[in-house]
Amino acid sequence: MRTVDDGAVVVRLVRTAERHPAGAPLLRALAAGLLGVPEPEVLVGREPSGRPRLGGAAGGLRASVSHVRGLTAVAVSRVGEVGVDVERLRPLPAAALARRWFTGAEGRWVAARPQEEQPAAFLGLWTQKEAVGKALGTGLADGGMRRPVRLGALPGTALLPVPAADHGLCTALPGAPEGFVLAVAAEGPGRVVVEGWGSEGSACVGGTTGPDGLGRTGDRRTGDRRTGDRRTGDQVIAHLTPAQRRR
């Protein structure tokens, strides 16, 4: 049986049929399996900010949830706060989005990639920012899209510090199924242990995904009352107004 001590963060990837499956049962199952306790002994609640919080036998563990169509990622950490974000890799105006919303250096870096690589480059930064925002409990509010992350980070399970960042978190871009991008942020350094596709989920939770397909799972705006995850709503990121971004 794997234990939480086997890695700073354990991430389970679950194939989900529903567009927004319930995260609480998946978190409960992961934490109970890691601790070797019955699932009813693990409590899943949420903080006032909307961040999921484990209790009962899992008290002291930290957790995060993210999902997009077809895939849910649940993460558990013993060493400190954790954030996870998953996105579907797809065509999008990556250079324009990066120039508009990211830092100047990040925008230039994405634009300098070959065009066919730009969506993956953009989503590698985006998922890191979402994961960092979740670990901090603030989401993308208060300038989260310009919060520093690892520029040009290579895929891997090592949680490495973000240069010139004041949040003190480390990030990793561990492997994900083809067609997806996965990022983890945690108090580290350390490593991420990724468990493969699990059983298909069926419970449905209300929530939205933007028309551009970006999962809104790192902000405080419309809380997911069952999983504790947070979403920015159904706006396309390029169309968010300054007032909406500050909320």
Summarize the structure.
With 247 residues, this protein is an alpha+beta fold. The protein is built from five helices and twelve strands.
Overview of the structural elements:
The chain is α+β, with helices and mostly antiparallel strands. It has helices at 23-35, 94-101, 104-112, 118-136, 242-246, and strands at 9-16, 42-46, 52-56, 62-68, 71-77, 82-88, 156-161, 170-173, 180-186, 190-201, 222-223, 230-231. Strands 4-5-1-10-7-8-9-6 form an 8-stranded mixed beta sheet, with helices on one face. The protein has a two-stranded antiparallel sheet with strand order 2-3. A two-stranded antiparallel sheet has the order 11-12. A hairpin with a 2-residue loop joins strand 4 and strand 5. The protein is globular and about 50 Å long.
List the helices and strands and how they pair.
Elements: E1 9-16, H1 23-35, E2 42-46, E3 52-56, E4 62-68, E5 71-77, E6 82-88, H2 94-101, H3 104-112, H4 118-136, E7 156-161, E8 170-173, E9 180-186, E10 190-201, E11 222-223, E12 230-231, H5 242-246
Parallel strand pairs: 1-10
Antiparallel strand pairs: 1-5, 2-3, 4-5, 6-9, 7-8, 7-10, 8-9, 11-12
Helix pairs in contact: 2-3, 2-4, 3-4
Cα-atom radius of gyration = 17 Å
- Are there runs of 5+ residues with pLDDT below 50, and where? 198-247
Coarse morphology: globular
SSE ordering: EHEEEEEHHHEEEEEEH
Q: If helices are DSSP runs of H or I spanning 4 or more residues, what is the number of helices? A: 5
The share of residues in helices is 10-25%
Question: Describe the biggest sheet?
Answer: 8 strands, mixed
Major sheet strand order: 4-5-1-10-7-8-9-6
Classification by helices and strands: alpha+beta
**Counted beta strands:** 12
End-to-end distance, in Å?
A: 43 Å
Instruction: Indicate the mean pLDDT.
Output: 79
Q: How much strand? A: 25-35%
